[in-house]
Amino acid sequence: MRILLLSGYHAASHAYWCGQLRQMIKAEWLELSLPPRHFSWRTRGSSLAFATHYRAQIEAFEPTMIVATSMVDMAALRGFFPHYANIPWVCYFHENQFAYPNAVERKGLVDQQLTSIYAALSADRILFNSQFNLDSFRRGAKQLFKQLPDFSAPELIDHLSDKTSVIPVPIAEDAYRADESVNGQLNLVWNHRWEYDKGPDRLGLFVDLLVQRQLNFRLHVVGQQFRRVPSALQQLLAKYEGSCYLGHVGFIQERADYLALLAGSSHVVSTAIHDFQGLSLLEGAAAGCSVVAPDRLAYPEWFASQCHYSTVKPSMEEAEAAVEALLTPRKAADVSHLSAQNLASAYLEVLTH
To answer: Are 297 and 278 in contact (CB under 8 A)?
Structure first.
């Protein structure tokens, strides 16, 4: 097989998936990607970029299959490359544009949503990284069709089922660690993007309650950072700067150092209001951490109920539930079935049939 792999918005999680896919599937690969900036333009302009700036490279490669993330306008791309009509086209959805909580009203959101629907309709096979992602896409797409003035076709969404599968982003093999001794201190890791949808306001309430209860804990706040840091996270870090409660703060550049931090920690924590899979938590579980996560989003697909805390509005009630979940003894969740080694056959089945 000669597989053309296209990533229209090459954010960290997309790059992670591309790397795992190439390692799992023995084939001749050509991977092309666009930088993760200008989000709205990427959703509409990625196909134009690939068809113009990369056309010679693509046609010289002569792919026998095209795999693209949902950030690529696959319907338009097929129009740019009509001579590839008879080879399989596979679309992978890391996310969808329907379930993302909007801090502010996003310009062009309906256009982005329609583009993702067109990509799904034009693909020969569709993959989602979680059932939550798939269900929220279906629900959102049908709702959007109902809002359109005329000539909509909500029944088309049901017709996608026969060509749709759920296969998570695999956990890299290097994330799995043998059990390492962890001292009696609660050594917590919050390893998420520093953005509002990861619930930094809820994290602040959780940490405040841990301090009020005089618990012996240390919190590492790691994850990808951007120019704008949510005010709730700024306030949390300023409040406890220099205290015994804060450990490592900031993105860890070297993956080996990041994995060592996970392996030496007791718990990995999420306060997110948006997560289509939860790879950060899954890597923490693979490293031997106990999971503390809300009972929403994709988390119930991977973790047993004792790992979850009940979710309400961002208040002390939810923080109290999170603390109780933290203090409930349990073993680390078994996520071995989500390893690259164990998911390789599922990906191979999709790509070869």
So the answer is: yes
Can you tell me the distance from the alpha carbon of 297 to that of 275, in angstroms, rounded to the nearest whole number?
6
Q: Are 194 and 234 contacting, i.e. CB atoms less than 8 angstroms apart?
A: no
Residue 256 pLDDT greater than 70, yes or no: yes
Structure tokens at 149: 């003035």
Assigned token pair, 281? 């938590």
Q: What is the pLDDT of residues 286-300, one digit of tens each?
A: 999 999 999 999 999
Contacts of 277 (CB under 8 A, 6+ apart): 94, 129, 130, 133, 168, 169, 298
Burial of 213 (0-12, 13-18, 19+ CB in 10 A): exposed
Domains of the chain and any CATH numbers: 2-170+340-352 (3.40.50.2000), 173-334 (3.40.50.2000)
Q: What is the dihedral of CA 34, 37, 41, 44, to 10 degrees?
A: 40
The pLDDT of 90-116, averaged and rounded, is: 85
Are the C-beta atoms of residues 232 and 200 closer than 8 Å to each other? yes
CB contact burial 85-120 (16+ within 10 A = b; e otherwise): eebbbbbbbbbbbbbbeeeeeeeeeeebbbbbbebb
Structure tokens at 133: 């992602």
Cβ–Cβ under 8 Å, residues 58 and 130: no
The answer to whether 132 and 96 are in contact (CB under 8 A) is: no
Element (H, E) at 44: helix 39-53
Ranges of H-type helices in 99-130: 109-122
- Give the Cα separation of 208 and 200 in Å (integer): 12
